[in-house]
Amino acid sequence: MGRAFEFRKGRKMKRWSAMAKAFTRIGKDIVMAVKEGGPNPDANSRLRAVIQNSKAVNMPKENVERAIKKATDKDTANYKEVLFEGYAPHGIAILVETATDNNNRTVANVRSYFNKCNGTMGTQGSVEFMFDHTCNFRIPANGMDPEELELELIDFGAEEVFEDEDGILIYAPFGSFGTIQKELENRGLEILSSGFERIPQITKKVTEAEMADIEKLIEKLEEDDDVMNVYHTMEEA
Fold this sequence. Notes:
With 237 residues, this protein is of the alpha+beta class. It has a domain at 3-72: Integrase, N-terminal zinc-binding domain (Arc Repressor Mutant, subunit A). Helices cover 43% and strands 23% of the residues. It has a 4-stranded antiparallel β-sheet with strand order 3-1-2-8.
């Protein structure tokens, strides 16, 4: 198996997916998608993908409809996607994806977490190059052969296809998202969820004591409402 498989396996073991946090993230994704491409999911592939993800975390349909309606209001602030880079203690690179309607607040908060946890904020581009920006799709297995599907989707950008207990996962470079989404839809395959991730090119092994220091910073960051994802180069236990 490749790096995407190992990365997914490691993240799955984390405390991930507090429902309230997942709903907040999807609410922001809906606003950004509607502001970018309009409220009709049939004509807005990004919104279509977010609605699929809302189902994957059991977000009530009325919450989704309310968020779409709210996003069409011109007085609703748009969220800007901002990337922060830096280092946790013990030389572990950290990449923080945020969606914010107040950049000054988010910058101040993220900087304070790094400072309080003995990390250092980096400049733009200081650690981003250490991660591959990928897209992913989850579809039902339905008896499909992942290896055969991978061969069929290579021409559309797929790099890694594998099965876990929740279905088949397809990983590809960030820029292949629209092409693969369209191909899966053309084939009539149900997309259970989709998204983007940053996979570290290399990881660093740390001791349990060092891991505790690093986890302290990651947890602080993940608790912030503006933070969408935190990625790092620490080797998962």
